[in-house]
Design a protein that fits this description.
- There is one protein chain.
- It is globular and about 60 Å long.
- α3 runs antiparallel to α4 and α4 runs antiparallel to α5.
- The chain is 68% helix and 0% strand.
- The protein is mostly helical.
Length: 142
């Protein structure tokens, strides 16, 4: 049985190489991008007055919709990469949180707060922010 598994794997060398490259790219990308995004996030991002996405407000409708679509597609890809990093090398939970923060969907705020309140996640994000000279994230009372 084991010989069958190894013979099947050797037949798909291109797939194994592609998956290995993807794993390395997502790992290195997460090591570079996640700290940058955690630091650039405003310390009041999770506060109630920040519920609305003001980034594209007041822009031309075509630009606003294009930006929203691009932001949601990139957010979905980041979220999927985070899910993959739960099994592959990388910062899976932090990557998933960044992906969720980029998406627009009902119940997003409650899910974000639930994830960021996980002790290990909040500690890691605040540690990254402190190393860069930024204050800890402010969270609303429960």
């Amino acid at each position: 049985m084991l010989a069958f598994a190894f013979s099947s794997l050797s037949e798909h060398k291109e797939l194994l190489v592609a998956l290995s490259v993807l794993s390395v790219v997502t790992f290195v990308g997460s090591l570079i991008l996640i700290p940058i995004l955690c630091v650039r996030m405003g310390d009041d991002y999770f506060m109630p007055h920040r519920d609305k996405d003001e980034t594209l407000a007041g822009r031309h409708p075509v630009l606003r919709w294009t930006g929203l679509i691009v932001k949601n597609v990139v957010g979905l890809l980041v979220l999927l990469a985070g899910v993959a990093m739960l099994a592959l090398p990388g910062q899976g939970l932090l990557t998933m949180i960044i992906g969720i923060m980029m998406l627009n969907f009902p119940g997003k705020r409650a899910l974000e707060l639930r994830l960021i309140r996980l002790p290990g996640v909040l500690k890691a994000v605040n540690h990254l922010r402190a190393r860069s000279g930024h204050g800890p994230l402010q969270l609303p009372e429960r």
